């Protein structure tokens, strides 16, 4: 079986003497793993396209035993500017690891791939705050994976908003001050609630088009990360490295 798709390399591992095992987020088939024979040789035709965070067109064959092999690849975007900034590179690598955890396998992943490409592009070449890109990518990716937080109103009485709402990062539920249950919650100003709703519900092209004060942006970034870790139950090595670089 042979198929063609565009994809972003979200993980690249050395194997054998000159080979690579790549994990790809593909538009048509979700997350797949494929061997790229000889790709670690600079002269190999697949060397560039199978590098980490390279976006390319791939022709992949699947053997009778279910092993995927990269036959041909043509780079479309290699994000060179990321390589000169360790903080931006580490954030892009975190997005790649996160997509490998949340994106579907063996089914179309158009929205995931588009989101990941937009996030990596903005990290590499835009003036937007990294905290904004990080929070938006996290919450939107969680929403695509079926973990959208409940933000349309108080989880108890249903009121749309009050002067101050409260968010539970462990459950993803929003409450008004009168209905807050005896569990961990965080007071959230309406501007942050509006930003969270925008991230989860806006059209893809408008996802990153919002602004917050520095203080509220830090709050949004903290809430999105805490909610993500609660929903996935995982600790991401790339996230820890990024946070080490930004301390």
Q: How would you describe this structure in keywords?
A:
35% helix, 8 strands, OB fold (Dihydrolipoamide Acetyltransferase, E2P), 247 residues, three-stranded antiparallel β-sheet, alpha+beta
Structure in a nutshell:
The protein has helices at residues 86-102, 110-124, 130-144, 190-201, 214-232, 237-245, and strands spanning 2-15, 19-26, 30-36, 55-62, 68-77, 164-168, 173-176, 186-189. It has 247 residues and is an alpha+beta fold.
Provide structural commentary.
The protein is α+β, with helices and mostly antiparallel strands and 247 residues long. The protein folds into 2 domains: 2-78, Nucleic acid-binding proteins (OB fold (Dihydrolipoamide Acetyltransferase, E2P), Beta Barrel); 81-149 and 165-245, de novo design (two linked rop proteins) (Up-down Bundle), CATH 1.20.1440. Helix content is 35%, strand content 24%. The chain contains 6 helices and 8 strands. The strands form 2 sheets. The protein has a 5-stranded antiparallel sheet with strand order 3-2-1-4-5. Strand 4 and strand 5 (68-77) form a beta hairpin. Helix 1 (86-102) packs antiparallel against helix 2, helix 1 (86-102) packs antiparallel against helix 6 and helix 3 runs parallel beside helix 5. The longest helix has 19 residues, at 214-232.
> Judging from the principal axes of the Cα atoms, what is the shape?
elongated
Structural class: alpha+beta
Secondary-structure arrangement, i.e. CATH architecture of the largest domain: Up-down Bundle
Distance between the termini: 48 Å
| Proportion of residues in helical segments | 25-40%
- CA gyration radius, whole angstroms: 20 Å
Classified by CATH, the class of the largest domain is Mainly Alpha
Given as residue ranges, the uncertain stretches (5+ residues, pLDDT < 50) are none
Q: Please, what is the average pLDDT?
A: 94
């Amino acid at each position: 079986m042979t198929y063609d798709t565009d994809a972003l390399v979200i993980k690249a591992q050395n194997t054998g003497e000159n080979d690579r095992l790549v994990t790809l987020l593909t538009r048509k088939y979700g997350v797949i793993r494929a061997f790229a024979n000889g790709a670690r040789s600079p002269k190999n035709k697949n060397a560039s396209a199978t590098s980490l965070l390279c976006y390319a067109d791939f022709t992949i064959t699947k053997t009778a035993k279910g092993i995927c092999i990269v036959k041909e690849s043509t780079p479309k975007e290699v994000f060179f500017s990321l390589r000169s900034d360790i903080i931006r590179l580490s954030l892009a690598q975190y997005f790649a690891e996160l997509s490998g955890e949340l994106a579907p396998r063996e089914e179309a992943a158009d929205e995931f791939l588009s989101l990941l490409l937009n996030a990596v592009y903005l990290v590499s070449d835009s003036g937007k705050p990294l905290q904004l890109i990080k929070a938006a990518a996290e919450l939107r990716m969680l929403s695509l994976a079926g973990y959208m937080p409940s933000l349309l109103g108080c989880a108890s009485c249903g009121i749309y908003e009050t002067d101050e709402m409260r968010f539970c990062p462990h459950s993803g539920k929003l409450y008004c001050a009168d209905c807050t249950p005896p569990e961990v919650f965080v007071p959230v100003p309406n501007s942050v609630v509006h930003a969270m709703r925008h991230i989860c519900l806006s059209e893809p092209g408008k996802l990153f088009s919002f602004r917050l004060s520095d203080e509220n942006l830090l709050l949004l970034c903290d809430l999105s990360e805490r909610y993500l870790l609660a929903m996935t139950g995982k600790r991401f090595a790339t996230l820890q490295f990024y946070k080490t670089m930004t301390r």
